Amino acid sequence: MGSKNKLKRFKENETFANVVQPTREEIFQDTHGLKGNWRKNFFKNDHPIVLELGCGKGEYTVNLARQYPEKNFIGIDIKGARFWRGAKTALENDLKNVGFLRMQIELITHVFDQNEVDEIWITFPDPQIKYKRTKHRLTNREFLTKYKNILKPQGIVHLKTDSEFMHGYTLGLLQGLEEEILYAHHDVYGNDHTPEEVTRIQTFYESQYLEVDKKITYIKFRFTST
Q1: For this structure, is 118 an active site residue?
Q2: Are residues 164 and 192 in the same domain?
Q3: What is the pTM of this model?
């Protein structure tokens, strides 16, 4: 994508009512006013909140919102030029239960309050295979602690990825922490018992992976440790 096109999208994002782009100062000083108030101030309802972390173009966020109008969905990514597409689609389709938030995921506890979130989707994250990159891996121990902090008790986390490494790493970590694994499979399209919500939505890249017979893995879990 050219820099001119990116700038155009950044400008458009600023006009979208469903996009929130707090500065780091606003995040750390909590002056954006949304922490603990997403339902009341942003969605204007009391429905459950579901996050998609690293939402990319926002395909999953938008499609989940279409299928579950009784829930609120927020796609989070640092790259606003990417989620511009999802934000625009949501506005064009008058989807009131969708929002997009531009920020680094490691700051998530500064933007959502304890027990404010009902569910988290992590879809096709960078597996960060090299050891020195483990601090950026979205299911490492530090990130799991953050998710646990903002999730309601019994809140669900979904990990959908094309990376066998990420699947195995996360599964091993969850087992070691004795968290509750509700479902796990290394080939969701080759298994009749996969929850329908996992296979019903396909991102652009996911469909490309499937064309070359790349397996898609999935884990559904919740926190039980204190």
Answers
A1: no
A2: yes
A3: 0.94
